[in-house]
Input
Amino acid sequence: MHIPDGFIPLWQCAIYWIIAIVAIGFALRWARENLDERNIPLLAVLAAGIFAIQAMNIPIPWGTSGHMVGAALIAIIFFSPWAAVLVLSIVLILQGLIFGDGGMTALGANIVNMGIIGGFVGFYAYKALKGVGRIPAIFLAGWASIFLAAIACAIEMAWAGTFPLAEGIIFMGLYHAVIGVIEGVISVVVVLGIDSVRSDLLADWVSSNKQGTLNTKQEVAK
Amino acid sequence: MNTQNRNLVMGGLAIAIVIAILAPFLASSNPDGLESTAESLEVPESEAVFESPLPDYAIPGMEDNPWGGVVSLILGVILVVMVMLGLTKLLGKRKGKGPE
Output
């Protein structure tokens, strides 16, 4: 859902840019307080993986396609929506500047939708749902992050006068309800994959490591 | 960086690069959700405000060659990792300079 140039009038673009810049400020503060030699490598490779997988468009019905965004995944793994804002901002800036994926005038709006809304919806959806079980909660958080980011995008497009409100919400909602399944599935797979090799790097609320009194890796490390 | 973290970075990068190699061959070229919505609602296509060096992950002059996409995506993967590591190092250093 990378918005291109020309879909949002410049004065509205400026508003999204300001929101994005403020959010990036908070994200950098989060990074300064929470990142260290232990977890920086995971964040860096996840950012690279997200960049790559955003190019892997998967076909959905109605001659459309969609790809993973990754904000919910990052927010869950690092226990902070600001982590998602940081990663998605860097990915979106490089995509816009170098690959023409998402317009530079719309960059602020793209950071708002995919980074901020995606990250916060993913974080709080997982928080609300983790009682039902880790795997369904990750899946639903991923799904909701895409779906609500798309609804926000449709509302922005209506405000911009580019899409009519009702039709925009129906089409964007329909397509992204399906694309959200891709997001949910890949998010679950990535968390389980990291959990199996480096559960110590996952935030406690999503790691299987927390009750692990008999963790072989820690035994070996001793 | 200790061995465990080096393995993590190497393993993670290997996965990202495999995706980067596969994507130009496997990815659907159908419009994405936003583009499809724009088409359905007959919104005209718009022009980018500036020419990016590798538009649409293709090397200019060889747009139809998927290997151009592979090279673009691998370059992007490396750039993202470098920016992330550089940025976090920068923030870490600033933290070190501050009062303990």
Notes: The first strand of chain A starts at residue 58 and ends at 60.
